């Protein structure tokens, strides 16, 4: 099997989405596929790789309905400089869609079918919001026979309630979750101040002509005292709040994947090698456990232990998710989400996996660590995890 490498990675700024107040979202006027096209063009331009050299495009999107349906990934391909010869696909594995897109294109390289490919993802949560509205409109439906299954659909279909279930069953306290959220914002704010995100974040213009260059969700002044004042968001007697949940977010990201031969042909140095990727199924009512279960599975596939991993990117869909993974795998917390995570940066569902892997690759370079693991829980009761090695 051939090796697949991450040659480069870039993303848009992540903005705060609000379906009822689109004016707060700098990307509300921009379709997600158009934004991904912008990211792809900027990525190819700075790498010096012509669009005609791209042989595969995988696009992640968690809610591929309305204007996020991309005709099997053709819209962002047509909207970018990627050549017409390039096949594409759109992948919906909910919050794991971006990592699944990376896996799809990487496997094409590993089997020798291609040498150069792109994996990207997007979500505009102002234009296509998650939650009950899509069900109320009839855009999304639930099969009637599922009502007869032994599933608690009230919980399974509400991500906030699944986080409540995980926190309750694993005895993660409100104080722990709030403290982890504060930590995420503090780390992201420090990274922003140090210019860390400039290495991955693009300054792009929205349809109004404004330059969108900053992540909009980081709150440097967040404190445990402020978060303690927030009411539960999903259950009257719950512990999950807007403060220890990731915010609705719009954004896009893409990674350039190559074989060793392609890297040599274009004179590029890779930032990471893909070692292994695995996903899993878990109880849908406790979907937040999926990140930890998938991480255990990918460690086994790679022949590694948690102690071998120098840096982790565990998606902060809710504070409970990385907290459970840290406890379950006995991970050193200082190695997790070193520059903050989705609680501060945001979680544009289809783009998140690409950001996790891309930021992780950059982190390994920055800290001279050998192995890193990116992991995410997935709505519906799944998890996905990837191990990469610094080049």
From TrEMBL:
Boundaries of every Thiolase C-terminal domain copy: 269-390
Cellular component aspect of the GO annotation: cytoplasm
InterPro entries associated with the record: Thiolase, Thiolase-like, Thiolase-like_sf_Thiolase, Thiolase_C, Thiolase_CS, Thiolase_N
One example GO MF annotation: acetyl-CoA C-acyltransferase activity
Record keyword Acyltransferase present: yes
Matches recorded under Pfam families: Thiolase_C (PF02803), Thiolase_N (PF00108)
Record domain Thiolase N-terminal: where: 33-260
Transferase found in the keyword field: yes
Family to which this protein belongs: Belongs to the thiolase-like superfamily. Thiolase family.
Cited NCBIfam families: AcCoA-C-Actrans
Protein name: Acetyl-CoA acetyltransferase
Native source organism of the sequence: Marinobacter guineae
């Amino acid at each position: 099997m051939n090796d697949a490498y991450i040659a480069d990675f870039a993303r848009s700024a992540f903005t705060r989405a609000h379906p009822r107040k689109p004016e707060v979202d700098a990307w509300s006027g921009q379709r997600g596929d158009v934004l991904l096209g912008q990211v792809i063009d900027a990525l190819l331009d700075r790498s010096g790789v012509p669009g005609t050299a791209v042989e595969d495009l995988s696009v992640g999107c968690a809610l591929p309905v309305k204007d996020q349906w991309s005709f099997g990934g053709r819209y962002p391909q047509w909207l970018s400089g990627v050549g017409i010869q390039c096949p594409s696909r759109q992948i919906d594995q909910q919050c794991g869609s971006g990592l699944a897109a990376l896996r799809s294109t990487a496997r094409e390289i590993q089997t020798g079918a291609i040498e150069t490919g792109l994996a990207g993802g997007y979500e505009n949560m102002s234009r296509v919001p998650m939650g009950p509205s899509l069900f109320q409109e009839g855009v999304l439906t639930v099969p009637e026979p599922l009502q007869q299954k032994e599933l608690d659909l009230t919980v399974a279909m509400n991500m906030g309630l699944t986080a409540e279930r995980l926190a309750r069953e694993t005895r993660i306290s409100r104080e722990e979750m709030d403290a982890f959220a504060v930590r995420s914002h503090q780390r992201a704010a420090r990274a922003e101040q140090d210019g860390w995100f400039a290495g991955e974040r693009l300054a792009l213009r929205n349809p109004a002509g404004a330059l969108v260059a900053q992540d909009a969700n980081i709150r440097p002044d967040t404190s445990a005292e402020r978060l303690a004042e927030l009411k539960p968001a999903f259950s009257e007697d719950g512990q999950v709040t807007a403060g220890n949940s990731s915010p609705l977010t719009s954004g896009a990201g893409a990674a350039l994947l190559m074989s060793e031969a392609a890297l040599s042909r274009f004179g590029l140095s890779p930032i990471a090698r893909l070692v292994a990727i695995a996903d899993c199924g878990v109880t849908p009512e406790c979907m937040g456990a999926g990140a930890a279960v998938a991480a255990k599975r990918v460690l086994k596939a790679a022949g590694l232990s948690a102690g071998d991993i120098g840096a982790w990117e565990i998606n902060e869909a809710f504070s409970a998710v990385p907290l459970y993974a840290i406890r379950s795998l006995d991970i050193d917390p200082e190695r997790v989400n070193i520059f903050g995570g989705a609680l501060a940066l945001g979680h544009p569902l289809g783009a998140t996996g690409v950001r996790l892997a891309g930021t992780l690759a950059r982190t390994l370079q920055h800290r001279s660590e050998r192995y890193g693991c990116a992991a995410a829980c997935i709505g519906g009761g799944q998890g996905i995890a990837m191990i990469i090695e610094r080049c």
